[in-house]
Amino acid sequence: MASDATSLPAIAILGAGSMGGAILHGLVRSGLAGAGVTATNRTAAKAAELASLDGVESVALEQRPEGNAEAVASATIVLIGVKPAMVPDLLREIAPHLRPGAIVVSLAAGVTLERFESILGDDVAVLRSMPNTPALVGRAVTGLAAGNHASQADVALVRRLFETVGRVIEVPESQIDALSTISGSGPAYVFLLIEALTEAAVGKGFAEAEARLMAEQTFIGATALLEASGEDPAELRRRVTSPKGTTERAIAVLQAAHLDGVFAEATDAALARARELAAGA
């Protein structure tokens, strides 16, 4: 393990696609990947997209079929970013090549720690993570659950990695799927709300560019105010909602639509799908 308080040990990201790629970009932006990062992808085209990142060795498996094995042989932390269905075969491929003391971290939705440990064995520390895509800009929320063989030092090291791309919440594995329905899928909910508010603005006669500016910057500004103020969101909402004013009338419509119930139903649906994935459906 690295003793340097400011840098991280060597990292391998196997499957640097959407989420793995977001973690990779955020990690590079942090400047803390001092020992280097190896990222693997199936195609040369995808690997080429990452080749210019500082401190990153980008490997195309179609050109170097042994690339995953080579990547993990020199890595202290190994992130598994391939699709859930591909995870078991990948773990069997890399298991003989993991260095002593390596920590394997899952980015794969629905694949349990038990599944990882059953393939990798008792001498490998495994953690399960659930980051979200704002990792790309250093503003992720990552849920982190430790396996049976992960020490406190292992968890602390992996936490440091994910803290380079945002905030970390340590939870038992039983809460990882529920967390994924809030923070994991959450950016999509926010983008959908921005889409809807933009469409409402267009419907009131604003040009598309003006509508997008109003909707997007209102969300960005509101969340920045929430973060800077430290206030409860309900309190900030009340301050904007003057009695008998226009905002009060609009909020009444949203509350009458049972927005809280809609979000509960949506996240319940996401949780049911996570459980289906865990069952192999």
Structure description:
51% of the residues lie in helices and 14% in strands. With 281 residues, it is α/β, with parallel strands linked by helices. It folds into two domains: 11-176, NAD(P)-binding Rossmann-like Domain (Rossmann fold, 3-Layer(aba) Sandwich); 186-278, Orthogonal Bundle (ProC C-terminal domain-like fold). Helix 6 links the parallel strand 7 and strand 8 (166-170). It is elongated and about 70 Å long. The two termini are 38 Å apart.
Core attributes:
Rossmann fold, alpha/beta, cytoplasm, ProC C-terminal domain-like fold, 12 helices, elongated, P5C_Rdtase_cat_N, 6-PGluconate_DH-like_C_sf, 281 residues, 8 strands, eight-stranded mixed beta sheet, NAD(P)-bd_dom_sf, oxidoreductase
CATH architecture of the largest domain, please?
A: 3-Layer(aba) Sandwich
Percentage of residues in helical conformation: 40-55%
Mean pLDDT over all positions: 93
Shape: elongated
Highest CATH level, the class of the largest domain: Alpha Beta
Q: How many β strands by DSSP?
A: 8
Biggest beta sheet summary: 8 strands, mixed
The helix count comes to 12
Q: How many domain regions?
A: 2
Instruction: Give the strand content.
Output: 5-15%
pLDDT < 50 runs, ≥5 residues: none
- The helix/strand series, from N terminus to C terminus, equals EHEHEHEHEHEEHEHHHHHH
Radius of gyration: 21 Å
